[in-house]
Amino acid sequence: MPFLSDTLSRVKPSPTIAVTNKARELKAAGKDVIGLGAGEPDFDTPQNIKDAAKAAIDAGETKYTAVDGIPPLKDAICAKLKRDNGLTYEPAQVSVGTGGKQILYNALMATLNPGDEVIIPAPYWVSYPDMVLLAGGTPVAVECGIENSFKMTAEQLEAAITPKTKWLIFNSPSNPTGAGYSWDELKGLTEVLMRHPHVWVMTDDMYEHLVYDVFEFCTPAQVEPGLYDRTLTCNGVSKAYAMTGWRIGYAAGPVELIAAMRKVQSQSTSNPCSVSQFAALEALNGPQDFLAPNNETFVRRRNLVVEMLNAAEGIACPTPEGAFYVYPSVAGCIGKTSAGGTVIADDEAFASALLEEEGVAVVFGAAFGLSPNFRVSYATSDEALKEACTRIQRFCAGLS
Ligand SMILES: Cc1ncc(COP(=O)(O)O)c(C=O)c1O
User: What spacing in Å lies between the alpha carbon of 337 and ligand 1's midpoint?
Assistant: First the structure.
C-alpha cells in the first residue's frame, strides 16, 4: 500500500516558489542573483494597517473568531463590493479565509466531484490546475496566445464548454501576464456563459486595484447581473495592500456556496488569523490614498521593463494593463545556443541558462501553461530591474 495519496501524485509543487527558493539559495551561496520571480509587492504594509493590528492585539483580539470572518470585516467587504464594483451582498454571502488561495481552494473542495471540469484560460496562475486536481476535478486549460494579448475569446470559451463543465476560473488582471479584460471583452465571455446555465464563474479579482493608464477594472457579476447567482467573486488584501504575509482573502457569492465553503474551512483551518482580520478591516475601511502612488511606481517599472525587454534580441514583450507582471515571448530565441553552451530548446532551458549564466531568476512559461515565454515580476526596485534587463539583453545578444 503506498503511503502517499494518489491525489498527491497528480499535483506538482509550485514552480514559482521553487524559482524563488533557487534564487535565494544561489544568493546565500554568494552568487550575484536578481530575483524577478516573487509574486508580491516590495512595498511595506501601510502604517495604519500595522497600527490596527497592534491595537487588536492589545485589545485582546487574539482568540478564535467566527470560522469565516468577524462580522465587522464581512460588513467592510460588503461595503467594498458596493463601493468599488457596484455589487450588493449581505454578510451571509461573504466568506473570509487564509489568503485568496484558501478561498479558491475551499470553493473547489466544496463543489467538485470526479469528472467535473473546470475551464482555466492559459497562461494561468500556477495553483489553479493543481487545486482543481486536489479537489478531484479535471482542469481544462485553454491556450490564450500572445496574438490576442493572452485573453480568452468568446469562441474559445464556447468551444471549451461541455455538459461536465462546472466552473470557469477567470482572472483579470492576470497572473502571469498582467492582461486585463475590458468591459466589452468580458461581456463577450459573459454572453457565452448566459447561454450555458450550468457553468459557474469563479472570478479571481486579486489584482483589481493594480491597473494602469486608462484601463478600468470590471468583474463578471457587474458586467452581467444575470450571472450573479452563479458567480463567486474572490478577492483579498494581499497584493494591493502589500499584505501577502497576513493571509487574508475573501469571496462573495450565493449563500449555499458560502455555507459549503465554511464547512470545508471549519474542518481544516478554522478562522483566519484574528489579528490579520483586524488589519484587513483597516485596509478596506481606511484611507486608500497610497494606491495611486504605488501604481505610479508600478507603471514606471512596467514601462522600463517592457521597453528594455523589447530591445533584447529574440524577445517580444506586450504591454499589460495591470498586476506587476509581464510575460514576454522568447520564440525568437528557441533553437539557439547560449554563450555558456546551453541549447535553448524551450522556455525552461532559457530560464535555467539565464539564471546560471547571468544570475537573473525568472519563471519559465511552461509553469503557467503557455510557452515559449517567461514571467517577470517587476515588483522590485528600478535599479534591480534595469540591471536584470541589461543582463537579459546581454544573454540574448550572446545566443547564436
Ligand atoms: C491570481 C492570484 N490569485 C490568488 C493569489 C493568492 O493570494 P493570497 O496570497 O492572498 O493567497 C495569487 C498570489 O500570487 C494570485 O496571483
Answer: 35
In the chain, where does DSSP find H-type helix?
Answer: 6-9, 15-28, 47-58, 71-85, 99-111, 127-134, 154-160, 183-194, 220-223, 255-266, 274-285, 291-310, 347-358, 382-397
Ligand 1 centroid to residue 244 C-alpha, Å: 8
Q: Is 206 in the pocket of ligand 1 (CB under 6 A)?
A: yes
376 CA to centre of ligand 1 in angstroms: 16
Residue 113 shares a structural domain with residue 40 = no
The alpha carbon of 129 and the centre of ligand 1 are apart by a number of angstroms equal to 14
Q: Is 142 part of a structural domain of the chain?
A: yes
Determine if ligand 1 sits within 6 Å of the CB of residue 123. Answer: no
- Do 164 and 251 lie in one domain? The reply is yes
97 lines ligand 1 (CB under 6 A): no
CATH number of the domain to which 37 belongs:
3.90.1150.10
Neighbours of 182 (CB within 10 A): 16
39 lines ligand 1 (CB under 6 A): yes
Nearest CA to ligand 1 atom 14: 39
Q: Is the CB of 244 under 6 A from ligand 1?
A: yes
Residue of 45, 101, 247 best suited for mutating to test ligand 1, as the one with most atoms within 8 Å of CB: 101
Directed axis angle between helix 382-397 and helix 347-358, to 10°? 110
Are both 135 and 258 inside the same structural domain? yes
pLDDT single digits (tens) 172-224: 999 999 999 999 999 999 999 999 999 999 999 999 999 999 999 999 999 99
Residues 70 and 127 in one domain: yes
CA of 238 to the centre of ligand 1 (A): 7
Query: Is 238 a pocket residue for ligand 1 (Cβ < 6 Å)?
Result: yes
pTM of this prediction? 0.96
Q: Do 333 and 269 share a structural domain?
A: no
Task: Report the alpha-carbon angle 305-310-316, nearest 5.
Answer: 115
Last residue in a domain, options 285, 312, 332: 285
Q: Domain span at residue 381?
A: 6-44+290-397
Same-domain pairing of 271 and 373: no
51 in any annotated domain: no
* Per-residue burial over 364-387, b = 16 or more CB atoms within 10 Å of its CB, e = otherwise: bbbbbbbbbbbbbbbbbeeebbeb
CB 123 within 8 A of CB 327: yes
Confidence of residue 397 (pLDDT cuts 50, 70, 90): very high
